[in-house]
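call fold(seq) -> tokens
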Amino acid sequence: MQILTIEQMRNIERKANANGLSYAQMMHNAGHAAANEIMTNVILAQNKKHIMLLIGPGNNGGDGLVCAAALHDAHLHNLNIYVYIFKSTPQNALWLATLRTRNIVLIDGESDTALANLKSALNNTDVIIDALLGTGVARPISGALQSLLQMVAQRRAQPNAPFLIALDGPTGMNYNTGAVDSYTLTTDLTISFHALKRGHLCHPAAAACGKIVVVPIGIAANTALDNDIDTQIERLDTNWLKRHLPKRRDDANKGAHGRVWVIGGCDDYIGAPALAATAAYRVGAGLVTLSVPASIKMTIAMLCPEATFCEQIANPKGLNNVKTLLVGPGLGQSTAAKQRLHHALNFAQAQFNQLNGCVLDADALNIWAAQAELGASVSALASKIIITPHPGEMARLMKISVAEVQADRISNALKLAEAYQTVVVLKGAHTVIAAPQGCAGVLPFNNPALAVAGTGDVLAGTIAGISAQGLGPFEAACCGAYLHGLAGEHWRNENGEAGLLASDLLPLLPKMLRKKP
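ret:
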């Protein structure tokens, strides 16, 4: 599913208008589509009877006015509709006039200076629809709007709180970055028009949006109207996964499914390379070879008995047909660890033509961030490299703060991918996978159960295992990250949001490969 910036959405609307789908018709379509969603999945499904729409001055308010008329015209039994006009404008005068002909209860917010009428209406409401400010929000909320939102928040904090719906997004949300105003309300449902916007999948807005549903407004998806978008961002789903996963032949042998070489581990981080190696096997890699310090080799062999071992990283003997190299899980940042990373990158350059991918994870990234001279080696391998930073590692690579990374995750992932010409997997809620060509995939998963040590090692191994089977770096990163996230969702659905061990994900990975769309 496509993810757009505000500017891209406006450009699509301009083109639609130029091609005969007027702005007025788009607003009509948006309001009716929102009303259908609300009628089906809120009013009827939850037996709601008293609906209040909060109407702002712009296009978002116009969408709300059309939605109010459509709800009225549905003739649902015993449905009461109140429309609170926070601020009226000439552009919405026609839609407002249509409500007057329907005898819908209209409340003039501009004369309701003490908000007494708003408070009275809220007390008798079980659904509130936020159509105050849409994509045009540009400054902090203050004054009368601040007071209005505070009163709604107070009502939402009371027993029998009304269900809150936002049209396109909650008021005060930044649709590009996911920032929210301090007075932005947390909704139960957000109805986005035509496509998701970047902010819907970036925190804190992602948490404020509740469940997000995308409804059509008459603009055909993936048509010539959308083809000139500079940056193609997509929310990944199970259908995407099924289209891109590598196929397996009935007559295949282990050599047909690729060899992964995992280099990592130290005395302080013994389990990490074993988790990565097992994950690579669990998603279908034919053979996994481990290179770890001699002091932990026997322990690792017990944790992952299926793996083979290679003691030499510089000029390894008998290590043939490596399809994907994974460096970093548990590596540490000692002098020996730095040498191991150097040797691994040299091997990757020597085997460049036969490699499908080179995954750099964890301390491999921290060493790279601290050693500028590694840039030349990484640059030579750029088209094969997948890096998997968490926000702290991303901040070190970009020389910015973690807060700056998190403030605009999608843009930052794209910037780093372009700067280093590598695929970037920025981990966290709604993980972002960015390619240097300007495309990106965003995961739909928002799972606190995965916030535990070791899950990143499983992710790196999952990506490496998929890469070894022949996918390009971007597709392998997207498939691996999605499978990992899907396994996490499966575990959460069964067990809750705390208590997961990284190893719990491993037996779930083969099941996720079989997940039906």
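The domain at 238-244+257-513 is CATH 3.40.1190.20 (UDP-N-acetylmuramoyl-L-alanine:D-glutamate ligase).
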